[in-house]
Structure formats: structure tokens, C-alpha cells
Inverse folding.
């Protein structure tokens, strides 16, 4: 099934649940009216949290950085020997 | 360099957790507390619990559409 269909079914299920809650009036009415906004705010909060956590756990790989610099220096030397202008520093 | 990244990430997650707990307390728990309790001093009146997210959402939508329009105009000007 396509991804957008899955998202639409989830949205329809959540709205059906919300309308069911409104009809059954188990929870006080004012609470139920606030539920969709609360859901959206918590979704935004969750996204921000995931971004923050991903930033914190981002690996920098210092050894690979060193190897990359060595490769770059080697390539520059080789190209300069063969007459290609490598520019910058 | 990675310390700055970690600090920004920590700040973001801290902000998101504070917003989440404050908003949950505001919307879910506060109506069940009697209106004379001292904790009502720390929370704005209940109408703002709806107004502030709607306002922020509308502002975000406006900024997004402005950005999209700006990028579209710039690309059209470059092609012409």
C-alpha cells in the first residue's frame, strides 16, 4: 500500500476515536475538544526531541577525518606533478 | 566542534521536553485542580492554551509560504 494511504488511514482512525470520545462523554467535554491541538503540539515536540537527540549522538569519526585529509594531500601532490592546477591553499 | 553540536542538541531536547510537560500540565491536569490552589498562578488562563499553538502554527505556515514564494520568484527571475 502506498505511504500516503497509510497516513490517511491513521488520521481517519484517530478522528473516529475522537468523535467516539465526544459521543460517549466519558472524559469531560472541554478536555475532548482540546485533544486534537494537544496531539499536534505533542507531535511537534516529539519531532524537535528527535532532532535534538540525533544532534547529540552524531558520530564525527576522527580517524576517518584524518585518513581523508591524508588522501586529499596525496591527491593534490599527484595532480600537481601531472600539471593539473589544484588551486586553493 | 562536536561540543557545540552536542550543546545545541541538548538545548533543543530540553526546550521540547519543557514545552511538552508544561502543555500537558496545562491542558490535562489543571482543570482537575480546584481553582484556589496556588499552582494556578504559574499558568496563564485556559484560553491561551488554544490561542498560542494556533497562532504559532499560523505564523509558521505564513513563513513557509513566504519562503516558497520567494524561492519561486528568484528562480523565475534567473530563467528570464
Amino acid at each position: 500500500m502506498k505511504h500516503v494511504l497509510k497516513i490517511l488511514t491513521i488520521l481517519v482512525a484517530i478522528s473516529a476515536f475522537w468523535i467516539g470520545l465526544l459521543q460517549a462523554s466519558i472524559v469531560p467535554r472541554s478536555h475532548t475538544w482540546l485533544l486534537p491541538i494537544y496531539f499536534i503540539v505533542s507531535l511537534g515536540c516529539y519531532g524537535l526531541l528527535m532532532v535534538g537527540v540525533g544532534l547529540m549522538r552524531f558520530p564525527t569519526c576522527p580517524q576517518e577525518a584524518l585518513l581523508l585529509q591524508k588522501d586529499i594531500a596525496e591527491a593534490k601532490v599527484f595532480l600537481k606533478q601531472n600539471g593539473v592546477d589544484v588551486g586553493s591553499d | 566542534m562536536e561540543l557545540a553540536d552536542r550543546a545545541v542538541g541538548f538545548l533543543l531536547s530540553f526546550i521540547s521536553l519543557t514545552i511538552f510537560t508544561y502543555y500537558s500540565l496545562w491542558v490535562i491536569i489543571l482543570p482537575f485542580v480546584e481553582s484556589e490552589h496556588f499552582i494556578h498562578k504559574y499558568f496563564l488562563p485556559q484560553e491561551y492554551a488554544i490561542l498560542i499553538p494556533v497562532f504559532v502554527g499560523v505564523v509558521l505556515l505564513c513563513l513557509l509560504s513566504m519562503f516558497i514564494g520567494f524561492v519561486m520568484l528568484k528562480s523565475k527571475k534567473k530563467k528570464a
